[in-house]
């Protein structure tokens, strides 16, 4: 009886240490701790699958994250009488994870579109380890060139003077890189004064 109780006590201490994360003052810290625990668990399962030789760790993490994907919805019935802001968003994920249809990125895009009354274009790019750099950069660059086409901007009701590009983590890196490329490329000269003298 004593050894069993001691075993359960040790197990509870390890479980509490695994789950607990000291957080700054937030309203519902248990939600963040549960999210962190689920991410840690999926990472450990992915590492275990790679150790067993079942799959590459990134493919296993992609499998776990694909469970959170949402199906796209059409926006063809949305009309606008005035030109709106445009935001070109690039998802993060270390160039090997994530997708714009993952629940968190989809929610972020919808929330941003609603709050700032903007057209959000969220793009995907081919992921590593299957596709190596600079494929990710090229995918985002081609998508941005498509979005900046005057006919596309007009069809989406985007004001060409109010366009931003952003991203998180690796997406932020890609956003910065393609912005520099757009500023230095010939196609930006015909549309907007994005070109810098230092290109």
UniProtKB/TrEMBL annotation:
Active-site residues from the entry: 169
Domain Alpha/beta hydrolase fold-3 residue range list: 87-183
Hydrolase listed as a keyword: yes
Gene3D superfamilies hit by this protein: alpha/beta hydrolase
Domain of life: Eukaryota
UniProt keyword S-adenosyl-L-methionine present: no
One example GO MF annotation: hydrolase activity
Signal peptide as annotated in the record: 1-16
Annotated keywords: Hydrolase, Signal
Pfam families registered for this protein in UniProt: Abhydrolase_3
Family of this protein: Belongs to the 'GDXG' lipolytic enzyme family.
PANTHER family: AB HYDROLASE SUPERFAMILY PROTEIN C4A8.06C (PTHR48081), ALPHA_BETA HYDROLASE FOLD-3 DOMAIN-CONTAINING PROTEIN (PTHR48081:SF28)
Protein name per its UniProtKB record: Alpha/beta hydrolase fold-3 domain-containing protein
Organism: Bos indicus x Bos taurus
């Amino acid at each position: 009886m004593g050894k069993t109780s001691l075993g359960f006590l040790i197990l509870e201490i390890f479980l509490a240490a695994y789950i607990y994360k000291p957080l700054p003052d937030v309203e519902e810290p248990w939600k963040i701790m549960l999210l962190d625990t689920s991410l840690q668990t999926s990472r450990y399962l992915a590492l275990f699958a790679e150790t067993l030789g079942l799959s590459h760790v990134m493919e296993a993490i992609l499998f776990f994250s694909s469970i959170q994907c949402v199906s796209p919805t059409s926006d063809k019935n949305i009309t606008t009488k005035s030109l709106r802001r445009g935001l070109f968003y690039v998802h993060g994920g270390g160039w090997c994870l994530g997708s714009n249809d993952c629940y968190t990125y989809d929610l972020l895009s919808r929330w941003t579109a609603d709050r700032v009354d903007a057209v959000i274009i969220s793009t995907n790019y081919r992921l590593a380890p299957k596709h190596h750099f600079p494929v990710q950069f090229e995918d985002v660059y081609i998508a941005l060139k498509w979005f900046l086409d005057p006919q596309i901007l007009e069809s989406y009701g985007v004001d060409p003077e109010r366009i931003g590009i952003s991203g998180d983590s690796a997406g932020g890196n890609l956003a910065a890189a393609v912005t520099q490329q757009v500023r230095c490329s010939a196609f930006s000269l015909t549309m907007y004064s994005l070109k810098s003298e230092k290109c």
